[in-house]
Specification:
By secondary structure, the protein is an alpha/beta fold. The protein is built from 21 helices and five strands. Component of the origin recognition complex (ORC) that binds origins of replication.
Length: 415
């Protein structure tokens, strides 16, 4: 009886809001993995069984996880490793090496990282090896158990796998796949990539040693599943401390997802990207508006957050610039095209701007900026650019800024 009273006690609203934000932020920032990856049950089962055979039975394997960015490749692998390491035998035997193609840009750096993660710096010492294969074989030999009859299985996770294919001679991939095909040491190689044509990047000798196992993660869910995901991501768990607050919160989320304007906003996000990271960013903006004075998410909060997520950040930065600053940006864009990405300095930008200002007319013969044209009265010049005889472009207000920038761009493009 006393336990039920403790569960049903009402917490202060401020404490409930703090706990809600903590739970949902951890969920949105991927700090808390789901129990099972939604919609990826078959891929989860396949990968778990594959790595279990490597960790427990000492079977060598290689596999590629392929899918677009944000499809859940890393989340799937982390869920599999979490569940696999709950088995005592796998936790005792399995060694892990995580490499990233963005960080380990060549095989020498990758080999140093392998040595560091396997804690074999003291074993290697100042030894000199004749080849990459000899060095890798020495590292794997050093992992043998005390009876020297068997080795501990090693899991190699290669994130951004396609970048490793650009290494010289693909030495790292060749040796890892070669070891996984032999009976020397139990090795599992898991590559994670977003390129569907990744096998075309491999050399023939590397491709022949790969098992050609691929796990594809394709976004096949529809908008109804997307909307259900939003509802699930924003809902509080059943074990929330204040049950009354949790019921009110979940009821408000249900009402929110049934709102027509909210459905339209979520439909726009779904059509632009099915990446759950962009969805989590949207929900994080909604969550930031929750406070003691407003303890629930309203449709207006989600609509405002949707406008912030879908707006063009670069275009917004240009809205606050003066005409002169816009002219400098156009001049820099022109120089960047002329020099094909080579560096240039502010003096070159200024010279280009002065040349354009000195010429004073665009290819159509209209005045862009500068002094009044000869023979045109000041009041006519102040009236803005003339359609036929060429006047002076007035310094425009905000609604006319895009048109003025367009005239300036035409002139600078003709430099």
């Amino acid at each position: 009886m006393s336990k039920r009273k403790v569960k049903d006690v009402h917490r202060p609203i401020g404490e409930c809001i703090t706990q809600v934000q903590q739970i949902l932020r951890e969920r949105f920032c991927h700090q808390q993995l789901p129990d099972r990856p939604e919609g990826l049950e078959a891929q989860y089962k396949h990968l778990l069984e594959l790595l279990r055979r490597s960790a427990i039975q000492g079977e060598s394997n290689s596999v590629l996880i392929v899918g677009p960015r944000g499809a859940g490749k890393t989340m799937l692998l982390q869920c599999v490793l979490r569940d696999l390491l709950q088995e005592k035998e796998a936790q005792k035997n399995l060694l892990q090496v995580h490499l990233n193609g963005l960080l380990q840009t060549d095989d020498r750096i990758a080999l140093k990282e392998i040595t560091r993660q396997l804690n074999l710096e003291n074993v290697v010492g100042d030894k000199v090896f004749g080849s990459f294969a000899e060095n890798l074989a020495f590292l794997l030999e050093a992992l043998k158990k005390g009876d020297r009859s068997s080795s501990r299985p090693v899991l190699f996770v290669l994130d951004e796998f396609d970048l490793f294919a650009h290494h010289k001679n693909q030495t790292l991939l060749y040796n890892l796949f070669d070891v996984s095909q032999s009976a020397q040491t139990p090795v599992a190689v898991v590559g994670v990539t977003c390129r569907l044509d990744v096998l075309e990047l491999l050399e023939k000798r590397v491709k022949s040693r790969f098992s050609h196992r691929q796990i594809h993660l394709l976004s096949s869910f529809g908008f109804s599943e997307y909307l259900q995901t939003v509802r699930t991501q924003l809902s509080l768990p059943d074990d929330f401390t204040d049950r009354g607050f949790a019921q009110d919160w979940n009821s408000s989320i249900q009402t929110l997802c049934e709102d027509k304007s909210v459905e339209e906003a979520l439909q726009r996000h779904f059509n632009s990207s099915k990446d759950f990271r962009s969805l989590h960013m949207l929900l994080m903006l909604c969550l930031s508006r929750v406070s003691v004075s407003k303890p629930s998410i309203k449709p207006a909060d989600l609509l405002d957050a949707s406008r912030l997520c879908l707006c063009d950040a670069k275009a917004n930065m240009l809205h606050g610039l003066s005409i002169l600053e816009l002219c400098l940006i156009i001049a820099m864009k022109h120089l960047n095209d002329v020099y094909e990405g080579e560096p240039f300095n502010l003096q070159m930008v200024h010279n280009g701007l002065r040349t354009s200002a000195a010429a004073g007319v665009d290819p159509a013969g209209r005045r862009i900026f500068g002094q009044n044209p000869e023979g045109v009265p000041a009041d006519e010049a102040d009236a803005g650019p003339q359609s036929d005889h060429g006047g002076v472009a007035e310094i425009p207000t905000m609604p006319h800024r895009r048109q003025a920038v367009g005239h300036v761009g035409v002139r600078i493009a003709g430099l």
